[in-house]
Write a structure and sequence with these properties.
Layout lengths: L7 E12 L4 E13 L16 E11 L2
Antiparallel strand pairs: 1-2, 2-3
Length: 65
């Protein structure tokens, strides 16, 4: 909990893009939300219990036309 004793959520995220060419790239992202004090925040509309955690990742290929 924070100094006032209220709900608190912490988020950490890490992403990377690797260019294969001028128009094509690979990408990936990882994120985690950790709740305390009764908070129930989650990633991408997921549902989590109070004081729970939510973890997500994505990866893909981007090509510009």
């Amino acid at each position: 909990t924070d100094a006032a004793g209220g709900p608190k959520a912490k988020k950490i995220a890490l992403g990377y893009v690797h260019n294969l060419s001028k128009r094509t790239a690979l990408y990936t992202t990882f994120a985690r939300v950790t709740n305390s004090g009764g908070a129930a925040q989650a990633l991408n509309g997921a549902v989590t219990a109070a004081n729970g955690r939510s973890t997500g990742y994505d990866f893909g290929v981007r090509h510009s036309f």
